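Working notes for the structural subgroup meeting. M.R. asked for a predicted model of this chain before we commit to crystallization trials. I am recording the input and output together here so anyone reviewing the notebook later can reproduce the run.

Input as submitted:
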Amino acid sequence: MPYTVWSRGRLVGESELAYVRCMPGLRSGDFEPSAIGEKLLPIILGVGPALRSLHDAADKARDEAESVGREMPVGDWPDTIRHTTEYADAMSIPDELESLALELRDPAGAVVKTDWIAVQDTHRLIAIAREELAAVDPDLDFEDDDVEPWQPAPPRYQIMVGLEGFDDHMSREAKKRR
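Returned structure, recorded in token form:
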């Protein structure tokens, strides 16, 4: 029986959360969206693309500033970035995600308390990796990394869930290492 993800009483998708557990309080697995989930995925998946666009815009602004001898401030987003649509998109994502009020339910339907729920598009991540590898070595041939006919295709979507207390646990662990 799968775990399910809900948004305001609407089924978003399901997962067995069956990946090997690598950290206490972190669960992950393949994610299969529902029909409504497919419609909500642009918001749910928006974090990665929005942040990548923002960092690309920041890199471009930094390159432009350096080409005319200006230095970009470190630590905060300069006004040249704050006035871009990429910045606005990235800053709006947390509010958009919060408005979905995503919740995880166990196989019996009981709500599982979480710190966060994140879904990623593996096809997008593979495309980014291929693009970056091709920039390093344009002669790379990606035809050999296709899935063999007897192997199942990789999942389109994956989910990670930080169970309640996960973020606090990670903060305490980080402080111990300092």
